[in-house]
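Section 4.2 – Deliverable D4.2 (structural model, holo form)

The reporting period included a commitment to supply a predicted holo structure for the target in complex with nicotinamide-adenine-dinucleotide. Inputs used:
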Amino acid sequence: MSLPHANRSTTVGFIGLGNMGSGMTHNLQAAGFPLVVNDIRREAAGELLTGGAAWADTPAELAARSDVVITMLPTPRHVDAVVHGPNGILAGIADGGTWVDMSTSVPEVAERVRTEYAARGLRILDAPVSGMSVGAANGMLQIFIGGDAIDVERLRTVFEAMGDPQRILHVGAAGTGYAVKLMINQLWFSHLVATAEVLSVGVKAGVDLAVLRNALVASPANSNFVENDVLSILEHSDYDEGFAIALACKDLGLSIDLGRSVGVSTELSALVEQIYRRAKARYGDRAGEMTPVKLYEELIGSDLRLEGASA
Ligand code: NAD
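Output (C-alpha cells):
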C-alpha cells in the first residue's frame, strides 16, 4: 500500500463546518488544498463553495471523492453517526483510505472501525485541538495527534495549514490525542471555577479586584488562567460563545468517564462538572464556556470587571 505525503493536490474532505470547522476549512482552502465539504447545515458551506470548494451531499460521497477525510463534530455520538450511519464515511472511503477525527471525542468509534473493518486497511488518527474558535480562524491551533508516526508525517502539511507548526504534537498511539485533549480541558475548566471562586470571595471580603488579581499573578498561585484567560471576562465581558457550554459539559463528562475507565477517582473533576452543568441549566446550552463565572457573579451581586472594562 502506498502512503503518499499530502501535497497541494491532496483533496481534503471535511465534515463539520461549525465554530471550529469553518475556520479550519478556510485555512485549508487558503493553503491551496482542494476541498470537499459536508455539514447538516448546507448554508455553513456558503463562502467555501464560492472559494472553489465542492459540496458532498453525504459523508459517503465526500469520502469517495477525498484523499483524506477530516471530521470536526460535536460529540462521539455525532462522529459515530457520520462514520457508521447510512451513507456514512465507511460506505464511501476507499480501502487503505485515511480518516482523521479532530473532534474532542473518545477512541471507541475508531476502535470499532479498526476491529470490524481490519481487512480494509484504513489509516485512522485522532487529532483534537486547542486554541478556541480564534485559533481555528487564524490557523494557530494546537493539535494533539494519536496514531502511527508515519501517518502524522505524511499529513503534516495538512495539519500545518490549520495549526501552529511548533505545537502540532504526536502524543502517542491511537486514542492518546483524545486523552490529552480531555485532560487539558478538564484542567482549564477546573482553573476557571477555582479562579471565579477565589476572585469572588476576595472581592466580597473588600479587596479591590485589580489589586487581588495582581497579587495572585505575582504569587506562587499564579496560573495562565489568572494571568491571561480570565481577562476575557474581566476586561471584555466575553464568556467565549465560540465554545458552547453544552460542549464543555460533554468534555467534562468524557473526562470523568475516562478516569472511571482507567480506575482513577476524579472527585474534583466531578465537582467542576456539576458546577458547569448548573451553569448550563441556568444560562442555556449555547452560553459560552466561561459562563460558570456568572454563577459566582450572581452570588456576590456584582460582575467581576476591572475598571475601564468594556461592557
Ligand atoms: P459546533 O457545534 O459549532 O459545530 C459542529 C458542526 O457539526 C455544526 O456545523 C453541525 O451542523 C455539524 N454537524 C453535526 N452533526 C452533523 C452530521 N451528522 N453531519 C454533518 N455535520 C454535522 O461545534 P464546534 O465548536 O465547532 O466544536 C467541534 C468539536 O471541536 C467539538 O468536539 C468540540 O468539543 C471541539 N472543540 C471546540 C472548540 C471551540 O472553541 N469551539 C475548541 C476546541 C475543540
